[in-house]
Write a structure and sequence with these properties.
Length: about 350
């Protein structure tokens, strides 16, 4: 009988391969049509660009994607798909600028297709530990977990017969109590008994279910599942990058030299997905690779081109950067440790 994990694994691999192959092929075909129109309906340039894109996707799939099963999936996807896709967008801009024509500024396709592939691959990587059927258990356990169910003796049985009723003999009242919570003090288990074992299976923070039990007729409204919340978290994770890529599609930005820093910063911000979500370095990477560079870029774009991006996004970048530096570094200074302040 086929394991239930086999169809899930096959679906994940097919979805990731589609996300790897479709964006470069679609962008390359659009660039090929643009190249043919710039050269006066040259079919040779069109088919040469299409054949090159097909050869690239085939070689990447056969030589890199399929053989390397233990690959860092997000890093491989960013290098094999996202980076070439952004390079095609920049090349299409320069081809039109050099030819002195404006035929296609790739307004909607990058933000809708390239980032959609990123979201699909990121969702698959986050969903791998989850079950697609049944209740949400947080994560799938690799095997049985053994716990020690040995009974623990009561406090009254551990009192020495020579001790008083209060638990402290007269000759030991001056000594500090043997508190197991006292730092630097270690307690040994009684002879002949093993120490109780507490096992904990770690799991990603974003896989813990946040559902709570409510009673009453409206209890169904209080139900939630970590798997559905994972989709929301993934789309919010990429929202800021999607907006910056959309700005690169604006004609004023697309036909200028600003398309280079915008797309380069968008690619660098996507490197945050290589790290584990909610990991120890996710906050620092978010500020260093996304919020602070995006803040500088968006303020510069607003100053040069006007309202090409909503003011909400630079405000978000500014607030995230300021609060990160304040709560992470400034609150550790002596002046902020005084209880008389806020």
């Amino acid at each position: 009988m086929t394991s239930a994990k086999t169809p899930k694994l096959a679906a994940y691999e097919l979805l990731q391969f589609a996300a790897l192959a479709v964006p470069p092929l679609a962008l390359a075909e659009r660039f090929a049509r643009l190249l043919s129109d710039v050269r006066g309906r040259d079919d040779t340039a069109y088919w040469l660009a299409v054949a090159s894109s097909v050869a690239y996707v085939t070689s990447c799939a056969l030589l890199v994607w399929v053989p390397l099963k233990r690959r860092p999936t997000m890093l491989a996807y960013l290098l094999l798909c996202t980076l070439p896709s952004f390079a095609i967008i920049i090349a299409s801009s320069q081809v039109q600028v050099n030819a002195g024509v404006r035929l296609d500024h790739f307004a909607e396709l990058p933000a809708s297709l390239v980032i959609l592939g990123l979201i699909c691959v990121d969702l698959v990587e986050r969903l791998r530990p989850c079950r697609l059927l049944g209740q949400d258990l947080g994560f799938e356990l690799p095997g049985p977990v053994l716990t020690n169910l040995e009974a623990v003796s009561s406090i009254s049985n551990t009192v020495h017969p020579n001790e008083s009723r209060n638990g402290v003999p007269p000759d030991r009242r001056s000594a500090p109590p043997n508190n197991p919570d006292t730092p630097g003090r270690r307690t040994e288990p009684p002879a002949g008994r093993s120490a109780p074992i507490t096992s904990r299976t770690p799991g990603p923070a974003y896989l813990h279910s946040s559902s709570r039990a409510f009673s009453g007729r409206l209890s169904f409204l209080g139900r939630s599942d970590a798997r559905s919340e994972l989709f929301v978290d993934c789309f919010l994770f990429w929202l800021d990058t999607v907006e910056l890529v959309r700005v690169a599609g604006e004609p004023a930005v697309f036909y200028s030299a600003w398309v280079y820093p915008v797309l380069i910063l968008a690619f660098l911000s996507s490197l945050r997905a290589v790290l584990a979500p909610h990991g120890p370095f996710s906050s620092t990477a978010g500020v260093a690779l996304q919020d602070f560079p995006f803040l500088v870029t968006r303020v510069s774009l607003l100053a040069v081109f006007g309202p090409v991006t909503p003011v909400l996004f630079p405000l978000k970048n500014a607030l995230v950067s300021l609060t990160f530096f304040y709560f992470t570094y400034m609150t550790r200074m002596k002046i902020f440790k005084r209880h008389s302040m806020f």
